[in-house]
Model the fold of this input.
Amino acid sequence: MSKARNILELLFESRARVRMLKLLFRNSSSSFTATELAERMQEPLSEVQREIKRFIEMGLLREVK
Amino acid sequence: MTNKKNKTSSKNKRINKRKKRSMLIGKNKHVSKKIYAKVKKNEPAYFLNTDFGSFYELRELILKSLPAEKDDMVAKINKLGKIRLAIISGIFINKENHDPLVADLLIVGDYVENRKVKPFLKSLEAEVGKEVKYSIMDKEEFQYRLAMFDRFVRVLLDGPHEKLINKLGI
Done:
């Protein structure tokens, strides 16, 4: 059982990234600021901001205009 | 005597004035806090781009993954107090479409310390990526509810669930 989660973390290389994906997909109708994401993910803001940048470059994430 | 009375009342007035002023200051503090919160709200917000190439494949992968590691959960729940029963349901069982009315986590135990519950839930919710609907009760309350065919307990036990800890033999 525990292996399944580890596979995700191995695949995505970081706990913060996996937490961010889980949070975003489990609340796909909401939008979040970096501060909110960091608070709910219990991960450092700097790491969250780095992931946001990556996801935006990938085209997975968009900024609310 | 009347003079004295007047004196005290004017003193009271003064005190009241001061109180009012300090209340105002208190209010101002509140306002500045609000403004601060608003500034924070002005930071950019982000949302998932559903037009992303592999959006649905990625979504499937993430939602089908385990919300939280069970062994880890058991160890953490046991640290909250003298735990007799821990049942997971809702988001932990039906990862995608679960009944929003069913609790996700029921913990039955004695001497459960509230100051430990809050950080436990916060870290659990951080891992799951969603609010966890939970209920904590002592053994007496649970057995009473069970005997009364209490709806909350029945819905949980009749539906899909898993007992992580079961020292009550139910």
